[in-house]
Amino acid sequence: MGLAVHHTTQPSTGPVGILARQLTPTTAGHTLACLYAADRYHQAVTEIGPRLREGQIVITDRYTTSGMTMQRHDGVEPTFLDALNLPVLPADLTILLTGTPDIVRHRLTNRGAHNRYQDRPDSTTNEINYFHQAADRLATTGARIAHIDTTNLDPEAVADQAASLVLQTVHGMKEAS
Ligand SMILES: Cc1cn([C@H]2C[C@H](O)[C@@H](COP(=O)(O)OP(=O)(O)O)O2)c(=O)[nH]c1=O
């Protein structure tokens, strides 16, 4: 179909993202929430915005919803996280990959934890709830949010569903413009 796609991640590989990753084991709460949000604003200006203006599709692994979720593990209030993250360049589509706590925990154990949040066995159920709550709060802004229940899907099937959702969104935006 010839669409130009740029794939990226949050935290980014830029200076603020590197700092956020470096400090995650030893810092917590408001400091980390601000660092991850700063990385998101910086990446929107330096990487994502310019590519969107060139007409590319930008896919990012984690975005605003992660910022509205992760530091709740450290007790940061949702209102603080929302105020920090909702003004960031809004996504045209947010896809939430969901799964039962058992299957998410099983996959995490097989893959290995990437940070101290994922080390705690009880964190999975909390995080799933936090993500659903963040998605509900994001939805009140009019954001387009889709859920893919990955419990019984392999990665290829998840990717297929995600690609269809992206294409639907792109077509919808083209028709509306
Ligand atoms: C984007 C973002 C990430 N994080 C943390 C938690 C994530 O697990 C980690 C991302 O590290 P990563 O190694 O990409 O882990 P995963 O594969 O689980 O995404 O960064 C936050 O705490 N807040 C944020 O806003």
UniProtKB/TrEMBL annotation:
UniProt domain Thymidylate kinase-like: residue ranges: 3-158
GO biological process, one term: dUDP biosynthetic process
Keywords, sorted A to Z: ATP-binding, Kinase, Nucleotide-binding, Transferase
KW Nucleotide-binding (keyword) present: yes
GO MF annotation terms: ATP binding; dTMP kinase activity
Record's keyword annotation contains Coiled coil: no
GO terms under cellular component: cytoplasm
Gene3D superfamilies associated with the record: P-loop containing nucleotide triphosphate hydrolases
InterPro entries: P-loop_NTPase, Thymidylate_kin-like_dom
Family: Belongs to the thymidylate kinase family.
Entries under PANTHER family matching the protein: THYMIDYLATE KINASE (PTHR10344), UMP-CMP KINASE 2, MITOCHONDRIAL (PTHR10344:SF4)
Protein name: Thymidylate kinase
